[in-house]
Design a protein that fits this description.
Elements: E1 6-23, E2 28-41, E3 46-50, H1 64-79, H2 87-97, H3 102-120, H4 124-127, E4 135-137, E5 140-142, H5 147-159, E6 165-169, H6 175-189, E7 194-198, H7 205-217, E8 222-224, H8 232-241, E9 245-248, H9 255-264, E10 269-272, H10 274-277, H11 280-293, E11 296-299, H12 306-316, H13 330-333, E12 344-346, E13 349-351, H14 364-370
Parallel strand pairs: 5-6, 6-7, 7-8, 8-9, 9-10, 10-11
Antiparallel strand pairs: 1-2, 2-3, 4-13, 12-13
Helix pairs in contact: 1-3, 5-6, 6-7, 7-8, 9-11, 11-12
The structure holds [(2S)-5-oxo-2,5-dihydrofuran-2-yl]acetic acid and manganese (II) ion (MN).
Keywords: Aromatic hydrocarbons catabolism, Isomerase, Manganese, Metal-binding
Family: Belongs to the mandelate racemase/muconate lactonizing enzyme family.
Protein name: Muconate cycloisomerase family protein
Length: 373
């Protein structure tokens, strides 16, 4: 299969403006930085992937700069000369030599799948065994930092029929104020929407015991990562007493973490993120662990652009049940696109056409314009 040998692996850091500041407990995004991964093969086919994180090093152990450097220096040389059409062999080769770095691996695995899909004329979802749906319901994150503005934004999303699930980023402020903020939004939206919160690890267990009860009383459906990611025993204790479901997000930094959390009964819901597991195939390993343990699934995001969002979407399309839907809204947070046709969001869902690979084409001019020099 010498014609599909990998010739080059390239990475580009891209800085894109956001529609508004996006406030998380650990960081406020004023723009988002994507790492685009391009795998060029001898048969003329190019696979594209994305390795994106949030807020430099404030969210996880890899930054855009370290992702680029680690792919360029350590992973690209392992892939050049290998057969691009064997994704298993290529990723196992990386896995043997690279211990962690799931974000970097995710972009590479996505690019290899994109290339193979283009080669065979099949969508990535079909390479992953076949899709069982063509669209995914998508939540929106309200994170302007202002209650009235968040309610206005939610009303607009409901009117547009774009979202009817809202996730609120809390944890940066006083717990009592944050809970009042969430309660006010749920009161305004009532039964028209599911309202959830993401604390992004900001509370300690004592605060969370009371906070989870109060949030549940206010009608909040789901509480994401209320305490530190390493406090797995605490998460299990909270999951037993919280009347609202608890979701593990940052606690899952690998497929092996997902297994440990499932074995410990730490949380009834898992956030699935390609970046935290090492790609669209890797995230399905975590999904299958969760399914075997009776844990509910949620299709998460690291606020990727269109490439990373579609890579995750193709994996999520194959799952039997996504009880808590997805939050694959990343492209909608950005004011600019680097692909020729932006993903389509309609009737509360992201639609994923049955096109070869991820189904996207890079817009070379836009990419060059926004690429960091
Ligand atoms: O879930 C996170 O922690 C990260 C991300 C996902 C949605 C959003 O607004 O931020
Ligand atoms: Mn989260």
């Amino acid at each position: 299969m010498s014609h599909s040998l990998i010739e080059r692996v390239e990475t580009v850091i891209v800085d894109l403006p956001t529609i508004r500041p996006h406030k998380l407990a650990m960081h406020t995004l004023q723009q988002q930085t994507l790492v685009i991964v391009r795998v060029r093969c001898a048969d003329g086919i190019e696979g594209v992937g994305e390795s994106t994180t949030i807020g430099g090093l404030s969210y996880a152990g890899e930054s855009p700069e370290s992702i680029k450097r680690n792919i360029d220096s350590h992973m690209a040389p392992l892939l050049v000369g290998q057969d691009a059409s064997n994704v298993n062999a290529a990723m196992q080769r990386i896995e043997r030599a690279v211990k962690a770095n799931t974000f970097a691996k995710s972009g590479l695995e996505s690019a290899l799948l994109d290339a193979q899909g283009k080669r065979l004329g099949l969508p990535v979802s079909e390479l992953l065994g076949g899709r069982v749906r063509d669209a995914l319901e998508v939540a929106w994150t309200l994170a302007s930092g202002d209650t009235a503005r968040d309610i206005e934004e939610a009303e607009r999303m409901l009117d547009l029929r774009r979202h009817r699930i809202f996730k609120l980023k809390i944890g940066a402020g006083e717990p009592a104020r944050d809970i009042a903020h969430a309660a006010a939004i749920k009161r305004a939206l009532g039964e028209r929407a599911s309202v959830r919160v993401d604390v992004n690890q900001a509370w300690d267990e004592g605060v969370a015991i009371r906070g989870c009860r109060q949030l549940a009383d206010a009608g909040i459906d789901l509480i994401e990562q209320p305490i530190a990611r390493f406090n797995r025993a605490g998460l299990a204790r909270l999951s037993r007493i919280s009347p609202a479901a608890i979701m593990a997000d940052e606690a899952i930094e690998s497929v092996e973490d997902a297994f440990a959390l499932a074995a410990e009964g730490a949380a009834p819901v898992f956030a699935l993120k390609i970046a935290k597991n090492g790609g669209p195939r890797a995230v399905l390993r975590t999904a299958h662990i969760a399914e075997a343990a009776g844990i509910g699934l949620y299709g998460g995001t690291m606020l990727e652009g269109s490439v990373g969002t579609l890579a995750a979407a193709h994996a999520f399309l194959t799952l039997d049940r996504l009880s808590w839907s997805t939050e694959l809204f990343g492209p909608l947070l950005l004011t600019e696109e680097i692909v020729t046709e932006a993903p389509v969001y309609r009737d509360f869902q992201l639609e994923v056409p049955r096109k070869p690979g991820l189904g996207l084409t890079l817009d070379e001019d836009r990419l060059a314009f926004f690429a960091r020099q």
